[in-house]
Amino acid sequence: MSNDTIRHDWTVKEALAIHELPLMTLLFRAQTAHRAHHEPDAVQLATLLSVKTGGCPEDCAYCPQSSKYDTAVGAERMLALEDVVARARAAKAKGATRFCMGAAWREVKDGPAFDRVVDMVKGVKDLGMEACCTLGMLSADQAQRLKSAGLDMYNHNLDTSKEFYGSIIQTRTFEDRLRTLDNVRSAGIGVCSGGIIGMGEATRDRVAMLVTLANMTPQPDSVPINTLVAVEGTPLEAQKPVDPLELVRMVATARIMMPKSTVRLSAGRTRLSREAQLLCFMAGANSIFYGEKLLTTPNPEADEDAQLLRDAGLRATGPTHVDASIEDHAHEINPTDAAHRFAHGDAGGASCASCNLDAE
Ligand code: SAM
Ligand code: DTB
Ligand code: SF4
């Protein structure tokens, strides 16, 4: 692995110049950055579960879970601890190594609901999986509590540039988002932060968001790039779909500016051809959400994704750090077996010389 210096002094002008490079040059630069820091054929699989769906008081214009908009998503009760752990176990059996739990909350409030999330994190960690949460704004104390429970990563997106932010969300500020990210970072939890393209923003806004992320010290561990899923009933329901090559440019620019981060090809994959997704991997994406559903909207079928990765010779990577407690769960399927089956199909035996799972 290369130890190239990571830059934290990016300007919007420089980022725009990268984004607008001739596509082949952009892809070459992105691949070069990618290969300097990552296994070129490894993709991390993360499964999402909405543990508290709908009824959110925020007004995020893209979101089907906001109570301000009349969408097909209604407010539901929070899931039970056992159900969440069972879903995590099933995701692991299918090859996922990270389990991300989302709640349609403006912010975390101390009390029984947060206590339950803390137990969910412990339950996921006991399975030997990486645990990630996205619960809205978080105080420093709450971040500490999640860290003590074993949380690996917290997702809180900037969503867009500081300048365009007010056109999308009015109920909380860009600075609120940065404060939550600071609390997460200070607690020693990995930072997962990215955004959405296709909401009517200019290219300048897209790269300005990347500049804010890249200039953080340290840069986020993980950067999800979502394309808008235009959901009926939201203010953005009629947005024109993003040209997939725009997404490829965004992924490549993120990869070049944040060479060590995991770049996650997130919402919007159901609209992408296999070839467009492979271009995104070539541009440096090295993680996807895996499983039929994101939080409330569809995602490609797991079998389709498994086939795509097999056809391209891409490997599912294991967790970056597996907790020792996995030893206590030897009766369950371990990540190596799960990823093995993912790579070779259910017929594959338990050991295979060609199955070289990356479990750093
Ligand atoms: N309520 C928490 C929050 O806002 O941080 C956590 C859940 S929220 C749904 C997580 C992220 O999902 C948002 O920040 C946004 O980037 C993404 N998202 C939500 N709806 C989306 C949509 N329709 N299309 C693309 N991304 C979306
Ligand atoms: C992220 O950046 N994308 C994921 C995850 N983080 C939580 C969420 C996408 C949600 C898409 C809309 C939905 O399914 O409700
Ligand atoms: Fe609520 Fe999060 Fe949706 Fe915004 S993105 S409305 S905070 S669930």
Large-scale geometry:
globular
Count of spatially separate domains: 1
Radius of gyration: 19 Å
What is the average of the pLDDT values?
A: 89
Strand content: 5-15%
Bound molecules: S-adenosylmethionine, 6-(5-methyl-2-OXO-imidazolidin-4-yl)-hexanoic acid, iron/sulfur cluster
Q: CATH H level: which superfamily? A: Aldolase class I
Low-confidence stretches: 319-341, 343-360
What is the element string, with H for helices and E for strands?
Answer: HHEHEHEHEHHEEHEHEHEHEH
> Sheet bearing the most strands, described?
10 strands, parallel
Ends apart, CA distance between termini: 13 Å
Text of the CATH class: Alpha Beta
What would the CATH topology be?
TIM Barrel
Q: How would you describe what is shown here?
A:
By secondary structure, the chain is of the alpha/beta class. The protein has one domain (12-359): TIM Barrel, CATH 3.20.20. Helix content is 38%, strand content 13%. The chain has 12 helices and 10 strands. The chain has helices at 12-19, 23-37, 81-93, 112-126, 140-149, 162-168, 174-186, 203-214, 244-257, 274-282, 302-312, 335-344, and strands at residues 42-52, 98-103, 130-134, 153-155, 190-192, 195-197, 222-227, 262-265, 287-289, 315-317. Strands 1, 2, 3, 4, 5, 6, 7, 8, 9 and 10 form a 10-stranded parallel beta sheet that branches. It is globular. The model is unreliable at 319-341 and 343-360 (pLDDT under 50). The structure holds S-adenosylmethionine, 6-(5-methyl-2-OXO-imidazolidin-4-yl)-hexanoic acid (DTB) and iron/sulfur cluster.
